[in-house]
């Protein structure tokens, strides 16, 4: 379902109903938007500013396309402005292709190390749409869970962090959970000394993680 919103939207003040996604007007007609249709309630708004997609629970998506990476540093200024001006949970999705791969390390250092945000590499808009759908569904399920139904489910932003950590070479779901349990956030993980990583996952995997994050 795709509609046009009839209310103003400003970063930081928007309240998105569960099961809905508010998308920047520039994505109307894109492959990503087409794949979201029928899976979530998609509303377009032309006043989102820096944000590409707003989800519920104060979570938003900033998407860096292959074209953005090749074009220059404007996407970096956009991310810095967002981080400085917004209290929203920002998840940065970067389109990592054969062409854009050469820029990925610089993006990773900026997003994770300098800005302390979640970074998820995706091969294409189809993968990005699947992540957004997953986050929306998790948010809706979390909302319906009662306070006495056992252990609290991971929040959507936490689920995205877990997925991001699992993309590090040598790290599966079990090790990702151990790392997040020990360091608490992906930002602290990325700034951990190698001996701290070794205490969590052993010398071999620790070296792989450290090399991936700092090479």
Automatic annotation (TrEMBL):
This is Fanconi anemia core complex-associated protein 24 pseudonuclease domain-containing protein. Residues 15-136 form the Fanconi anemia core complex-associated protein 24 pseudonuclease domain. One of its GO terms (biological process) is interstrand cross-link repair. Pfam families: HHH_2, PND. It comes from the Eukaryota. Signal peptide: none annotated. GO terms for cellular component: Fanconi anaemia nuclear complex. GO terms for molecular function: chromatin binding. Residues 168-214 form the DisA/LigA helix-hairpin-helix motif domain. Keywords: DNA damage, DNA repair.
